[in-house]
Specification:
Layout (H helix, E strand, L loop, with lengths): L7 H28 L4 H9 L19 H13 L7 H15 L2 H13 L4 E4 L15 E4 L3 E12 L6 E7 L9 E7 L5 E6 L10 E12 L3 E2 L5 H37 L1 E2 L2 E2 L4 H29 L5 H25 L10 H8 L10 H13 L1
Parallel strand pairs: 1-4
Antiparallel strand pairs: 2-3, 3-7, 4-5, 5-8, 6-7, 9-10
Helix pairs in contact: 1-3, 3-6, 4-5, 4-6, 6-7, 6-8, 7-8, 8-9, 8-10
Length: 380
């Protein structure tokens, strides 16, 4: 079915993204995968091309357009290109809203121009060795010392952890337990006591630097408090819907792309003297995946449109996230199987998509957490 979501302007932006990928990303991507990190030059190139800070006001160097459909185009094209390592979605769609909605005017002028130019790469540090989806388990703490905070603790699995110049750290600012004594503190590159651990060795998304972060008596100026004191829980919950939508968009785009390349493969690959596509089992597999993708696409496009209009709620974002990412995982597995031995070879796109996409059902809130949110909304 013809999609009704995008206008001519969105499709023109799609061509810009494709040109950027062809020129600035794909020629270097294999090397970044070997290095375990993306070159900083790629981030600056993205800034020059206008791919960073899409929703940031023009006065700070951004695109001045909060229409989420542009972010969806970006996510779709990077996913189809098999290039998740340069985490523009994390920068734009997850961290960007914290800076645009919570930052003071002084903070905006200090951070947003670099955010939009690619000079300041960002990360958000929530997960700890002993605390993942449950924010109440966070132990990283910040003690009020008058004109500054003293930050202590550690974080793990932090995307952009090695490259990041600004890290939004979720820290406990009251001694009481629970999720409501948390605040957001912005730690900047070079602050004494802020150390990065190893670049973690993952099974996929090798070029996306993912690190351990350590804070030893880091003096964070009071001017680096982002949002309300003790207000992090509300801030985090407010922005999670967009984060989950960004992940869902990548999920359905990945499933659709895997279906495309697998459809081509079974038409060309022969077994028992005829193309695989002539076998009934293969046709049924393709038919099932095509139907699942079509149904999911209709729901996701509706969610994207609702979010662009400011009408998407947390429950439907959770539905989109768990369904699209579980579909992605299922389609990746079935498409790899249909490629046979070739599907297990790292140079084949289906193999890379299988390992790169496996994290989708985990980060941004696991599938189990998504189901809990949905179930709680229905059953209390």
């Amino acid at each position: 079915m013809k999609r009704q979501l995008y206008t001519a302007d969105h499709e023109a932006f799609r061509e810009t993204v494709r040109t950027f990928l062809a020129k600035e990303v794909l020629p270097h991507y294999a090397q970044w995968e070997k290095d375990g990190i993306v070159a900083r030059d790629a981030w600056r190139a993205a800034g020059r091309q206008g791919l960073l800070g899409l929703a940031v006001d023009e006065e700070y160097g951004g695109g001045g357009n909060a229409d989420f459909r542009y972010s969806a185009v970006l996510a779709e094209e990077f996913t189809r290109a098999g290039a998740p390592g340069i985490a523009l979605g994390l920068h734009n769609d997850i961290i960007g809203p914290y800076l645009t909605s919570l930052a003071t005017e002084e903070q905006r002028r200090r951070w947003l121009p670099g955010f939009c130019s690619g000079e300041l790469i960002t990360a958000i540090a929530m997960t700890e060795p002993g605390a993942g989806s449950d924010l109440q388990g966070i132990r990283t703490s910040a003690e009020d010392q008058g004109d500054h905070w003293v930050l202590n603790g550690s974080k793990t699995f932090i995307s952009n952890g090695i490259l990041a110049d600004l890290v939004i750290v979720v820290a406990r600012t009251t001694p009481e337990g629970g999720a409501h004594g948390l605040s957001l503190l912005v730690v900047e590159r070079g602050m004494e006591g802020f150390e990065r651990g190893r670049n973690l060795d993952k099974i996929g998304q090798k070029s996306q630097d993912t690190a351990e972060l350590f804070f030893h008596d880091v003096r964070v100026p009071k001017e680096n408090l982002l949002g309300e004191l003790h207000g992090a829980f509300v801030h985090l919950m407010t922005n999670l819907a967009q984060e989950r939508m960004a992940i869902a968009v990548a999920g359905i785009a990945a499933a659709e792309h895997l279906l495309e390349i697998t459809t081509r493969h079974v038409k060309e690959r022969e077994a028992f003297g005829r193309p695989l596509a002539k076998l009934q089992h293969i046709r049924f597999e393709i038919a099932e995946m095509a139907t699942e993708c079509a149904v999911t696409r209709a729901f996701l496009d509706r969610c994207i449109a609702d979010h662009a209009d400011g009408r998407l709620d947390a429950v439907h974002a959770s539905m989109a996230k768990w369904w699209a990412t579980e579909l992605q995982k299922r389609v990746a597995d079935r498409c790899l199987q249909l490629h046979g031995g070739y599907g297990y070879m790292a140079e084949f796109p289906v193999a890379r998509a299988f390992t790169d996409g496996r994290i989708q059902t985990i980060y941004g809130g696991t599938t189990e957490i998504m189901k809990e949110i949905i179930g709680r909304s229905l059953l209390g």
